Amino acid sequence: MRIERELMRGAGPVAVLKLLESGPKYGYELVTSLAEQGEGVLDMGQSTLYPMLYNLEAQGFIKAAWEEGDTGRQRKYYSLTPNGKKRLANSVEQWRALAKAFAGLGILEEGKKSRPALGGATS
Amino acid sequence: MIRKTERQTRSWKEWWDLLNRTPCSEVFRGHLSGSLPKDRKWYASITSLFNRSVDPSSILKETGLSEEVRKSILQIARSAGSSRRVQTDYLREFLQSLRLVLKISPEQQLADLPVELADRLSVAVPLRALDRLRAPGLSLVHTLPLELSKLIESVVRATRLWKREKVDVARELLNHCEDGLAAGVLPEQILAAFGDPFAAARLIRRSKIRQRSRLWHLQHRMFLGLGCLLLFTFFVYLWLLVRFLTAVPTIKRDFIGEIDRNSQAIPEANRAWPLYRQALMKLKEGPIGELLKKDTPLSILKPGSPEWNPVAIYLDQNTDSLQLTFAAAALPDFGFIYRDPANRDFLETMSGKGSYDIQIASTHGLMTGLFLLHVQELRRLFRLLELETIAARDAKNRERWVKATGAMQSMGEQLSSGEFIIIQLISSYYSKTTWRQFRRELAEDSGMLTDRDLQEMAHRVAGYAGGGRLVQRLDTPMFFEDLLQRFYTDDGHGDGRLNPSYFAVNAVNGKSWNTNSRIAGMSLSLGEKLQGAALSGVVASRSELRQVMREIELLEAQEAEKPLWERTVSQPSPLKEFLMKWHSSPWDRLRYAPVLKLFQPLIDAGDDWLASLAASGEYTTLHRDATLVAIALTLYHRRHHEWPTSLEQLTPGLLPAVPLDRFDGNPLKYKLLDGHPLLYSVGQNRLDDGGLPATDPSKGDGAPDGDLRFWPVD
Asked: What is the mean pLDDT of residues B511-531?
């Protein structure tokens, strides 16, 4: 299921920050992780991902560096900055509060089994 | 070393991959083609591309490529730029890639090279050009499918970012595509998942710009702000320009027409000017003519002296003019009509052909440019009368003297109600000159005049300009109203904006041939139009100027009511003070430019002649009062055969009261000097110098030192 652009604007950056929490990643890696761990909801193409990454970099939440990858080719790896970590923590708190509120309204089902968190870390 | 069988079985893609892994040094050892001479030949061909003056098409001929491919490649090279150097550089890049491909694919004959391969390389080369300068780690060529290469190239180009930013984005997008292909994703799937390329370019641009430094953002905002300000200024200016050029004045008052109507209301038989005109037309100039045109004091001409001979001839030749002048002076009103066609011959005789048309045109333009030739020429008749007076006095011909001085006084009286201050000043001059003649005769008291003559003289002098204290008001309100109605539009509520007539009128001589501002607007130069538009945005409005002029008028009225001893004539007049205050401030010079244009001569003049003009009424009053005292003294002397010791002795019988010295507010100064009366005023310096004359008596009332002596006449 694809979500609306406005929702993606809020959710996309949080998802990317969460993925980077586990370590530096490059663009294609982020796209595939979002597709797999987001159950297809957070699918995004290059035209969405890279502007988002550049915005996060401009805001100081992530930093980028060209490094040689396993194929010998140079890739741009993104990693979380301390500000990014704070921002992620803040966003996660807000999303959880939102989820709780939605659960109270009956929008979300309560007691749903927790899934593996994005990036591999368990919540 | 690559074996022949391998070359035959590998696809071009595989050979590209092989090339990416092969160091250049191996290439030059002939390890790609298996033939060193061939590799060297190709290497030489590559280096020959450094010769930038070589024609790209001749380079291509050496490659042995088919004509179709050569055309395609040449087209690609020519699209890189218009100069041969740019094309050659591009071709060098392109052929370098192409030759390496040919070397690893020996089974592909030159003629077999597909055009599509050339097209593919055409996309790769621009990307590689980005890479060449900044990213040495990027692959020499990319093996992406053509559609993906084109997509990335178009997105990167559409971002319109700085070069290094483009390289960064290109590298990242290329890597993403290659990662996708490496993971087994089909090119079509990558393409579909990319999204809208132009939206992507826009978003990438926006987000990349956010990454630029704060200094850049600050500069960018400043430039944007400046640009907005310039754009705003441009539109405001455009609006002002249209507003200015479409402004049309409404001439509601024809001041000259009003003056003419007043003159036309006078019965023709009572109008003196037609007779004066005839007198002037008949006036014969002689050797004395030049003398009379200048301000030569006639007192130097004494009957009986050799200098008097031409005067006698002049008087003799101009008897007709003299008689006509007497007849004119006997009429009650001057009656000059500015737009009278009867003046044509007179004007063209005095000032040349075409001067009548100039006169008429000046009556339709700004009043500051009005020609007053009639007043200027009238002076010749006045001087004729002066000479007649001197001759009559010498001949002790009472009748002739009374007639001449009477005509002089009448001329002054006729002009005293003149519509312009310049005419009123001329009236004052004529009157003071006449009274000086009276006092000169009275000082000698040759017995030519009877007591009755003296009494009638006293009545006439006392009645000048209605009698009483003379208050001289300026005529600036009329000129100012005329200025406003010509330079400004009229919105019907007392306000208006500047119109092109401001430039069409030369305020120095007031020439304006067009009162229609549309015509005036079209005749303006481009500079005047642009200047006018800017000026119209800052200049004071019609209502503002009128308000200011009302304040000035009030100040002037208050000043005019003050007696001379309460004013310091050396101080600037209220009008000049206002004008100088405006003139000293650059902003005010802009705001009040229309008024300053009108009064520029006053600003430029070192002296404040307006202050002197405003004081002229007081001077005339002083001269008149002194003449009355002189008449009273003469009558007293005739009755008592002695001079009074003080002026109080003349009251109340011969004088109602002792007149005041207008300069100090005290009674006029009188004393007996060697048994003879001396009547004087303290003058400009307000100090009683005991009747000592000024160092330069020719300065008259304005002499800065000494006393003003009325009797005897100097």
From this structure: 58
- Of the two residues B278 and B107, the one the predictor is more confident about is B278
Q: Report CB contact under 8 Å: A74, B208.
A: no
* pLDDT average, residue stretch B659-672: 93
Distance CA B351, CA B369 (A): 16
Interface of A with B (CB under 8 A): 26-29, 31-32, 43, 45-48, 50-55, 57-59, 66, 68, 71, 73-76
* A53 pLDDT higher than 90: yes
pLDDT of residue B12: 54
Contacts of B709 (CB under 8 A, 6+ apart): B678, B679, B680, B691, B693
Per-residue pLDDT at B209? 95
Is the separation of the CB atoms in B207 and A54 below 8 Å?
yes
Distance CA A109, CA B655 (A): 123
Element spanning B678, H or E:
strand B676-681
Cβ-based neighbour number of residue B190 at 10 Å: 24
CA distance A96 to A123: 11
Interface of B with A in 195-234 (CB under 8 A): 195-197, 199-200, 203-204, 206-208, 210-211
Of B206, A39, B306, give the one whose Cα is nearest residue A15. A39
Contacts of B503 (CB under 8 A, 6+ apart): B520, B524, B528, B531, B532
Is B21 in CB contact (< 8 Å) with chain A? no
Q: How far apart are CA B194 and CA B678, in angstroms?
A: 116
Confidence at residue B32, expressed as pLDDT on a 0 to 100 scale: 54
Write the pLDDT tens digit of every residue in B186-226.
888 888 888 889 999 999 999 999 999 999 999 999 999 99
- Residue A45 to residue B137, Cβ atoms within 8 A: no
Specify the 3-state DSSP secondary structure of B427: helix
Check if the beta carbon of residue B670 is closer than 8 Å to that of residue B677. Answer: yes
H/E element holding B165? helix B163-182
Spatial separation of the C-alpha atoms in residues B408 and B427, rounded to whole Å = 10
The vertex-B386 CA angle with B381 and B392, nearest 5°, equals 125
How far apart CA B377 and CA B293 sit, in angstroms, is 9
Length of chain A: 123
Distances (CA, A) of B87 to A24, A103, B50, B57, B393: 42, 66, 12, 10, 109
Number of helices (H), then strands (E), in chain B: 34, 3
The DSSP annotation for B561-580 comes to HS-GGGS-TTSPPHHHHHHH
| Cα–Cα dist B383/B373, whole Å | 16
HSE-up of residue B667 (Cα within 13 Å, Cβ side):
13
pLDDT for position B624: 95
Which range of B124-128, B416-420, B633-637 scores highest in mean pLDDT? It is: B633-637
Give the integer Cα–Cα distance in Å for B458 and B309: 34
Q: Are residues B190 and B144 in contact, defined by beta-carbon separation less than 8 angstroms?
A: no
The shortest CB-CB distance from B207 to any of A29, A45, A54 is to A54
What pLDDT does residue B170 have? Answer: 85
| Distance, CA of B535 to CA of B590 (rounded, Å) | 7
Q: What is the average pLDDT across B11-17?
A: 57
Rounded to 10°, the helix B355-364/B344-351 angle is: 110
Q: What angle separates helix B373-394 from helix B344-351, to the nearest 10 degrees?
A: 80
- The predicted complex's ipTM stands at 0.85
- SS3 string, B690-707, reads CCCECCCHHHHHHCCCCE
